[in-house]
Specification:
This protein has 73 residues and is mostly helical. The chain has one domain. It is 32% helix and 5% strand. The longest helix is centred in the middle third of the chain and has 10 residues. It is globular, with a radius of gyration of 14 Å. The termini are far apart. The model has no long low-confidence stretch (mean pLDDT 87).
Length: 73
């Protein structure tokens, strides 16, 4: 299983929390690339409920990872 920022971004608007099967269904319905579906199919725990993309790909960059000062805008 490999994730890239582009592949993981297809799951940003997924209906969190979600199970593996719900995420696969969402990926297919939303037209995500086949690599996203394949990555989700490789998740071992069928019934685990994921709260967000970080639980699937811990290296997913969050808002805090970007260095900019929101007060300037």
């Amino acid at each position: 299983m490999y994730w890239t920022l582009e592949l993981a971004s297809y799951l940003e608007d997924a209906p969190w929390p979600a199970t593996k099967s719900e995420l696969i269904d969402y990926a297919i319905r939303s037209g995500a690339p086949i690599e996203v579906v394949e990555n989700l199919q490789e998740i071992e725990d069928e019934e685990e409920v994921f709260e967000n993309i970080e639980e699937i790909w811990p290296d997913y960059p969050t808002k805090e990872d970007f260095l900019f000062n929101e007060d300037e805008y």
